[in-house]
Amino acid sequence: MILVIVESPTKAKTIKRYLGKDYIVLSSFGHVRDLPSSKMGVAVEKNYQPTYSISKKSAKALKSIKDTIQQKKIKKVILATDEDREGEAIAFHLKWIIKRYAPKMKFERITFHEITNSAITKALKNPRDINLSLFNAQQARRVLDRLVGYTLSPLLWKKIKYGLSAGRVQSVALRLIVEREREREKFKPKEYWDIAANFSKSGYEKKAQSDKAMENDPNIFLAQLNYLDPKKLKKFDIKDKKQAKELENKIKKKDYLIGKVSKKQTQKNPAPPFKTSTLQREAASKLGFSAKQTMMVAQQLYEGIKLDKGSTGLITYMRTDSLNIAPAALNKAREVILKKYGNKYVLEKPRYYTNQTKGAQEAHEAIRPSYPNKTPEEIKKYLNPKQFKLYNLIWQKFIASQMREAIFDKVNYEVASKDQKIKLLASGSVIKFDGFLKAYGQNFKIKETRLPELKEKEALSLLKVNSTQHFTQPPARYNDASLIKTLEQYGIGRPSTYAPTLSTIVDRGYVEKDENKQYFPKEIGYLVNDLMVENFSKVVDYEFSAQMESNLDKIAQGDKEWVKIIDDFYKPFSREVKTRGEKIKKYEKKIDKKCPKCKSSLVEKFGRFGKFYACSGYPECKYTEDPNQKENEKKDRELKKEIGEVKCEKCGAKMEIKRGRWGPFLGCSNYPECKNIKKIENSSNVTCPLCNVGEIVEKKSRKGIFWACNNFPDCRNAMNGKPTGDRCVQCNSLVIIDPKTGKEKCSKKGCNWKKGDS
Known about the structure:
Elements: E1 2-6, H1 9-16, E2 23-27, E3 42-43, E4 49-50, H2 56-71, E5 76-79, H3 85-101, E6 106-109, H4 117-125, H5 132-159, H6 170-186, E7 191-201, H7 211-216, E8 220-228, E9 231-232, H8 241-252, E10 256-268, H9 276-287, H10 291-303, E11 305-307, E12 310-312, H11 327-341, H12 376-379, H13 385-401, E13 406-417, E14 422-433, H14 437-440, E15 459-471, H15 480-490, H16 498-507, E16 511-513, E17 519-521, H17 523-535, H18 542-556, H19 562-583, E18 589-594, E19 601-607, E20 610-615, E21 624-625, H20 629-643, E22 655-660, E23 663-668, E24 677-679, E25 683-687, E26 695-701, E27 704-709, E28 718-719, E29 722-727, E30 734-737, E31 744-746
Parallel strand pairs: 1-2, 1-5, 5-6
Antiparallel strand pairs: 3-4, 7-8, 7-15, 8-9, 8-14, 10-13, 10-15, 11-12, 13-14, 16-17, 18-19, 19-20, 20-21, 22-23, 23-24, 25-26, 26-27, 27-28, 29-30, 30-31
Helix pairs in contact: 3-5, 5-18, 5-19, 6-16, 6-17, 9-10, 9-15, 10-13, 10-16
């Protein structure tokens, strides 16, 4: 028997379909060995030798692998983990562990970029050894990040607050967000005006039309003022309303005709198929997915979706910065385009793309459908809504990349006063041939502007003049798409690091997202960033971070030795941290308030549970105060009215409202003799329909508020909105209030009933 090991149970099930009875496929459930969570795990004095440990989660999977090897008399182990650095590291550690109890075991390493029968068959025919250069690059990254984190994080705990962290990539991402926010705070809007006028052919009489009617009338067109004798107008030339009104009056007093007419044909080529960063960016802007969500759904599509004839991987490997496409896939794309869209959309020969990304690795393919002939509509019934949206985006992008370019007819009319002292410009653009837009056009906001057919020197009628006030806007906050794009432009991070980096800075409480899903820094984020920039500028320097990524890539290519790269960085870095750490003062901000006990000044500090005020006379005076005390007392009074008097079920004493890290809770007034505590639950007063015992109550998680049965863990019923108590008229499930729209809808997945439907 031959044992094949992959990292994911879903992937294991999919691959099992393509292998014969002589193969057993098991999952390692991710990494099997890693640096310990409780200590640094790197022996600096021994050439940075890492100490690896096996987690409890991994131990169960490893026991299953060991039992299978011994009981099934396995003769060979095939390591089929992902074809990136992380996958190579998993394969290395699996081999190391198995060798401990099966020293004579034969090993093979195979890789494939898509989970299809042909890809796996080809991989089995072309096994290789473990690539130690790839493993060393992954090991170097882990060691480097561990050294940075374990050296800087304790310093942040001492100087600001316990539980903070710093990282080589996350600290740069935080710096970008903080600096952008400060740009916005300093920004001063500048006023400017523009002037546009509606014209028609001379003699076209249709007066008193609304703006919308004129916009839709094919005989009327809009032109923008762009020349005022003796010069071409620039953006800020019209500074205020008074000047704009004076120009309006000037324009109204003139007669107009068509000046120069410019007509040309332009082409728009399709963008390349997706790589990791562009997929994350486009999924964020088009679908509203976070980077983490995009990668999670892409992983599902890659590892396998259950179709009628079993599971199959629907896309190629999703962690890649390559734009390469296999010849067979290009041929398939051509067949699909010919069949679905017709011969006029087919290219004469395939289109190839050049990667402009710094340090891009070209070993993989771009992200594409494994089977281009499986159209999104054809397999929609097998996918959940998120899977369908992402697969549709990937499929359309890939197919469009191999279609003919779109062709536009563009025309510019110069509208001039008869004395040539005032000139306006009208621009029109019409799609002559949609080309790749046939497949991907719905993802663009392409607005056609049709102009009436006019000739030079043709007389015009001026219908209306409008002046519009504008103000310059501050630079936009970063969202997932723009932050990933910026990190990629600087050469910071790699495909596998973007999503976890963005999740980390949110989870640490450094940044939040606003209503537009854009990042803004919280107070603690400002403090951490400023400490890093002022004292450890090299770590958060864009060029340094990019250079370190380049060094890691060279380790992966076998061009550099990993220990030397780490040593060159860590020795001066550790000295700098030690020297500067002694000089950095602990964060204390003096506030305009006196200590009620000793009359010393109060200072603002951060503790385990957030911001608090403390006496500057500490340790002689240990007075502390919650800065939100008055607000919390008001909330507690309102809460007490809602829940009424509650008795302790253990000792009968009154329960009092107390506050902790996660907000208010009930604690026994007989503390410390009685330590009973109880959650304060916002109940919907709706009995759980699954267990008929508990109530549906409000719960909180890192992702926000949801509603679930309070009989957890015996009952795991949960929903994303507050139940009303009513039942869906179609499936009899509970009706909930949609948190996004505030409207009532069915709580059952797959049922699309909303209030107002029959």
